[in-house]
Design brief:
Chain lengths: ~210, ~210
Amino acid sequence: MSTASPAPRRLTRKGQETRRRIVSAAADLIFEHGVAHTTIEDVREAADVSSSQLYHYFDDKPGLVRAVIEHQADTIVAGQETFDLSSLDGLRAWRDWVIEYQRKLNCSGGCPIGSLGSELADTDPEARARVAEGFKRWETTFQSGLREMHARGRLTPDTDPDTLALALLAALQGGLLLTQIERDTKPLEAALDAMLELIARLGGRS
Amino acid sequence: MSTASPAPRRLTRKGQETRRRIVSAAADLIFEHGVAHTTIEDVREAADVSSSQLYHYFDDKPGLVRAVIEHQADTIVAGQETFDLSSLDGLRAWRDWVIEYQRKLNCSGGCPIGSLGSELADTDPEARARVAEGFKRWETTFQSGLREMHARGRLTPDTDPDTLALALLAALQGGLLLTQIERDTKPLEAALDAMLELIARLGGRS
DNA sequence: GACAGACTGGAATGCGTGTTCCACTCTAGC
DNA sequence: GCTAGAGTGGAACACGCATTCCAGTCTGTC
């Protein structure tokens, strides 16, 4: 909304590539260490660019962070859309994938945008709004699946699939957070399994 | 474990009071702005002490943060224990309280230790461990309630109350996180209501 | 009432880190 | 092939902020 990137009116092909490299490196570092513990110097080094380049493509650090938020949201939604979330089996496959993924990461990092949001929510209103926007898009993927189940009669008529989608996203976030802190996937499993159990039971018959 | 406070072997009454004032001020500031955006200078001012006092009671900033974690965990567990979590009605009363509390805070701050944990998990292993410890204590309060329900036959025999307790804590955390980011209590309500609905349905009869 | 050590005040230090600046090279379009 | 502006390099700057230091006062104990 307000100050985006300095937006060089035209980005040459090489420029796009450089910018992409910066955002990607920044995203990785921030995912690993958080915004506060990721220095411009770190990003510079990881992306192999000079500081003038960084400030050529982004207004300042918050500007870069905003680009990272965008990037992470895109990545997540894209990943999410490879799953069919409109059936119990589909949801279970997704659940397995999420847990396996966390295990691969040794339960570190948490959620690529949840952690960011938590760190910036009470500090950078612009960033908070963008994370919220990202979550909305994420939520939508769950909504689609559950609405379809609802329409197909796989959820009792008086269930609200949208509220259920929001609850599922919350359970995922909480599970990821606890898993990151306890360095154990159990909380994530418990949270997701509980939600899937509820969805199953909302199918009409136990 | 490792380096706790410099631990002046004896704390005089006045000393205890000063230390308490520092921790309390730091806790408030950190809750509001996060660790990274809370400077020693801020704490100094809010607690009305000089820097030498701060370093008299704590090794360094991480040391102070560790004390804050401890303090927040104590506060949470104490608050939690004023509720009876061994019945659906008790859980609902707790749910209402949590939501009302967030509303009063304008949905800011998130969870007093969850936010902290998320910020420090991949940065300060000592802090991470202490937050994990705090969560364990918190989890225990849920376990007690649900185990009692289980023992009283208010949960089907094949339900594991401990896993359910963990899921409930995760749902709470996720709900708090989303609520903080979206500035709306809806996610928190959705998450908690979903878990309570599941617990109700695990009562045997719908 | 005197001694040790807990407690306090505030100035000084020093480093990490975000940001700026200027000189230079490359690229696209006419 | 020439020019405007995109892209790049790297040194220099500025400042916030954690931490240190020393000199001083208060407090409990024997």
